[in-house]
Amino acid sequence: MRLLASAVFAVLLGLSSVATAAPFTLTDGNASVVIDPDKQTGISNWTTDGVNQLNQQWFWYRVGASGQENSLDTVLHTTSQAAPNFLTTTFTDANFIVRINYTLTGGADGSGGSDLTTGITIQNRTSSALAFHFFRYSDFDLENTPDGDTATLEYPGRVVQDETDGHLAELIATSTFAPNHYEIGTYPATLNKLTNGDATTLADTPAQGAPAGPGNQAWAYQWDFSIGAKSSKTWSEGFTVSISPEPATLALLALGGVGLLARRRRK
User: Which end of the chain has fewer CB atoms at under 10 Å, N or C?
Assistant: First the structure.
């Protein structure tokens, strides 16, 4: 019923997106991503070279200083997939529109690397300023294991998460719009804050540069800003997963002149 209502609402608003059945799968090279905009689980799978690296990633929002956060899937929305590796979901409320573009860039088979870029635009539909609070929650389970991860806020807008059980695995997350608050902690402490019915301000812990873990680490960003009447705010976030391949695979890639290590390590 939500998809049908979203489609009708989109036609009335003159939106171009087409509502189709969720979940959606992005594919490119050695990678795939599963996105379900109808559910709080949101992005629930990011597979690179056959191994899932992600448990859950999704968005919450609040308008004004008080009241609970709501997950973005509760807003009427439409989704279109223009290419196998590109997806757009538009969430339309009476007061705002949130448009999210996802682009997946996979690597060569066996390279251990892939990238997911998210473009976010929040538009104020009202004739007065809108106090908006936006949250992105991330629970990466690198190498498909929940424990053994260490996560560090290197500076506002950049989190690095490492897994050293088995192969070395690393996630690098960067944002072009530095968050006002952040929080890294053991699952599900931060998720509970976003879903407990109270207004949330993330704790800004641990301190910048101090690692959290090892353990089942999850983390979130919080942006607090005012959007002017009929105005919008746009930024992008990039996520890079890299996993050290088996020694034999690494040797073959090196012989092929792929230059794997230069591509995978930190930008």
Answer: N
